[in-house]
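Example record

One chain of 181 residues, shown exactly as stored in the release files.
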Amino acid sequence: MREQRRADDTSHQDVWTGRATNRAQWLLAVVGAACMALGIHLAVDSAWTSGIAALAMSVVGCIAAGLLVLFGTLAFVHVDLRLDRECVEVRCGHIGLPRRRIPLSHVAGADFTALVTPRQWGGWGYRWRPEKGTAVVVRRGEGIVLNLWDGHTFTITVDNAESAVRAIRARLGSIRPGTAG
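Predicted structure tokens for this chain:
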């Protein structure tokens, strides 16, 4: 059972959970499924007379492109953030992969950012930019920026990000850098 913390209550529950969703990516998933269907249709009901090599390349290409688009978009339809007493855990998509677990002892601080855009990070998904750090961006909007003790940052788009930042800061007060929590 998931507990969603309200914005005004950050000290009484042990687990804070949040989520961000991008419904527009379902359209890309439909495109991927259509591409796969085209590949299957070509394989089953083909009247190509130009040769088996061209047909095989078309079928394999459509199915491969469809799988890449379908699974690539479904992996980033939503992101789940879970904060407990020991770590911040980020899981993407329905399978929960990619996943990142950051112990709170590795977090120097947390900041709220009002606007994270895919354009800032080069698109949707799990992103890395040398000058900015790492991010999980599933939609345009508010997010959390975790400042890690090693100098890196980790940005996550999540609804109710201000509440998450308050919860993280409250937990950081009792944790020393480099300890297990």
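Notes: The mean pLDDT is 85.
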